[in-house]
């Protein structure tokens, strides 16, 4: 599903590489935590998968896409197969919950009758039935993140990339969001989540890939956040 082969990324303005000879393979349906201190390269890793950056060296494969070499005109197709969730939710503040989710389908040209059918389904899946007509600022942080997850998942992407999705949430709300991501993972969607949240990583016991200064220093099948720390 995801394969990085000897990937290095050097930003022009940065002396040391953001990623250095990183090789990682993630299979369909896996749930993987990407951890490491600030500046270790987690966001760069995710941006390479989306072709928001291209590697300086090495190959990046996502699904059947040779991401770094593919033609620019095919990039929207790649991005349609990847749902994204961020720490700061990134909802459209002037649209309702349902409109936020519907918008993700409108921009890829889905017909109106499909949108009308699938938006309530996905809102129910994320536990927001009854809140379709609310505005984002009328929701709690946890609810806003559920909207963002609904929007990322409504097109049934092959994978979900989550960059610190619990970073702005309290521990209980974070647990709820993790249950939701697990549920999405059980549908067969690959989930890759960058996080600093020790307690979540420790409680879930999923695969942990740890970066330090742009290198993979650990890849544990059922890992915890800090080994021997
Ligand atoms: N656009 C950019 N231009 C120059 N240097 C960059 C750019 N983006 C990231 N870097 C550098 O690359 C390295 C890795 O950054 P990256 O954002 O990938 O780390 P991170 O692990 O996601 O950090 P955080 O947890 O703080 O988000 C850092 O040294 C950072 O300063």
Automatic annotation (TrEMBL):
PROSITE patterns per record: ABC_TRANSPORTER_1, ABC_TRANSPORTER_2
Subcellular location: Cell membrane
Membrane association type: Peripheral membrane protein
Keywords assigned: ATP-binding, Cell cycle, Cell division, Cell membrane, Membrane, Nucleotide-binding
Principal location: membrane
GO biological process assignments: cell division
Transmembrane feature ranges: none
All copies of domain ABC transporter, residue ranges: 2-227
SMART domains per record: AAA
UniProt-listed Gene3D superfamilies: P-loop containing nucleotide triphosphate hydrolases
GO cellular component: plasma membrane
Coiled coil regions, renumbered to chain: none
Any one Gene Ontology molecular-function term assigned to this protein's record: transmembrane transporter activity
SUPFAM superfamilies recorded: P-loop containing nucleoside triphosphate hydrolases (SSF52540)
Family membership noted in the UniProt record: Belongs to the ABC transporter superfamily.
Functional summary from the UniProt entry: Part of the ABC transporter FtsEX involved in cellular division. Has ATPase activity.
Subunit structure: Homodimer. Forms a membrane-associated complex with FtsX.
This protein's name: Cell division ATP-binding protein FtsE
Organism: Herbihabitans rhizosphaerae
């Amino acid at each position: 599903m995801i394969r990085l082969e000897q990937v290095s990324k050097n930003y022009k303005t940065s002396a040391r590489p953001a990623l250095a000879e990183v090789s990682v393979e993630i299979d369909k349906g896996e749930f993987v935590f990407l951890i490491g201190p600030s500046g270790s390269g987690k966001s760069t890793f995710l941006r390479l998968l989306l072709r928001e950056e291209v590697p300086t060296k090495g190959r990046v494969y996502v699904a059947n896409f040779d991401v770094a070499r593919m033609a620019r005109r095919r990039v929207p197709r790649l991005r349609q197969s990847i749902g994204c969730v961020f720490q700061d939710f990134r909802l459209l503040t002037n649209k309702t919950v349902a409109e936020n989710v519907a918008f993700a389908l409108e921009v890829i040209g889905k017909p109106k009758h499909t949108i009308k059918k699938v938006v309530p389904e996905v809102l129910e899946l994320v536990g927001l039935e009854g809140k379709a007509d609310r505005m984002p600022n009328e929701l709690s942080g946890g609810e806003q993140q559920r909207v963002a997850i609904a929007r990322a998942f409504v097109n049934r992407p092959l994978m979900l990339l989550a960059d610190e999705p619990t970073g702005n949430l309290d521990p209980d709300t974070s647990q709820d969001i993790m249950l939701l991501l697990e549920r999405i993972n059980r549908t067969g969607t690959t989930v890759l989540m960058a996080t600093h949240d020790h307690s979540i990583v420790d409680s879930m016991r999923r695969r942990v890939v740890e970066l330090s200064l742009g290198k993979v220093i650990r890849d544990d099948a059922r890992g915890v956040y800090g080994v021997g720390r």
